[in-house]
Amino acid sequence: MRMIFTIASRELRTLFLSPLAWSILGLLQFILAYLFLTQVDAYTMLQPRLANIEAAPGITDLVVTPLYGSAAIVLLLVTPLLTMRLISEERRNKTLPLLISAPIANHEILLGKYLGVVALLLIMVLMITIMPLSLLAGGELDCGKLLANILALLLVLASFAAIGLYMSCLASHPTLAAIGTFTALLLLWILDWTAGLNPQYNAILQYLSMLSHFQNLQTGLISSRDIGYFLLFSATFLLLGIRRLDYERLQK
Helix H segments across 93-220? Predict the structure, then answer.
C-alpha cells in the first residue's frame, strides 16, 4: 500500500508541475461559475412564479443539480486529457520497460497512477462544491440531494479515470489514448438515447448507460444498483489495465 500512495503522490505532483492541470482547473471554474450564476439568475426571475405553485422545485433542484450535471459533461471532455499520458507517455519515451521491470507489482503501478488522477478530480469536485455551498448565505439547500450529487459526480469521475487509464495502457501515443477515451466515454454516456429505437434492448442499454445511473443518483435516491454499476465499471477497467501490463511484462 505504501508504494501505491508513493506513486499516487508522485503522479499528482507531476500533474501540478505541468501547466495542464492549472489551466484545466482555471477553465473549469470559469465555465462552471458562469453556468452557476446563470442558473441562479434564472431561479431569481422564476421565484415569484414558484411561490404560487404547491410543492414547487427549490433552489437545489433548479440550480445545484444542473450544475453537477454540467460538471459531469465538462469533465467528460477534460478527463481524457488528464489520463492520456499515464502509461502511453512511458511507452512513447521508451521508459515503460524500465517501469514494468522494476521490483514493483503491476497493480501497484496502475493503482498508484489511478489514485493520483482521482485525487486531482477530487480537488475539482471540492472546488465545484464551494459554489452551491455559497447559497447557504442567503437561503436553504436540500443537503441530502447535494450530497447525492457530490457522490454521483465522484463515482462517474472515478469511472472516467478508470477507462482513461486503460486506454492509456493500450495506446502507443497520448493523443490516441485521449481520442479513444473520449470516444468510449461519449458512447457510454449517450447509450440509452437509442433505447427507443430498439425496444427489445431498452433495459440493457439503460443499464449500460452512465448517464442513466448518474441521473438516478442525482435525484437523491441512493441505490446499490447505481453505486454497484460505477464500482464494477471502475474495477473492470482497472483489472483490464493490470492484465495489459502483465502481458507487456511477459513480452519483455
Answer: 96-101, 106-133, 143-170, 174-189, 202-208, 210-218
The ranges assigned to domains in the chain are: 2-251
Residue given cell 469511472 in the structure block: 159
Q: Is 208 exposed, middle or buried (0-12, 13-18, 19+ CB in 10 A)?
A: middle
Classify 159 as helix, strand or coil.
helix
With cell 487509464, the residue in question is 165
Burial of 173 (0-12, 13-18, 19+ CB in 10 A): middle
Per-residue cell: 3: 508504494
Which amino acid is residue 107, in one-letter code?
Answer: H
Q: How far apart are CA 225 and CA 247, in angstroms?
A: 33
CA-CA distance, 137 to 236, in Å (whole number)? Answer: 42
Q: What is the pLDDT of residues 77-132, one digit of tens each?
A: 999 999 998 898 888 887 777 777 777 888 888 999 999 999 999 999 999 999 99
Nearest to 59 by CA among 143, 182, 168, 1: 143
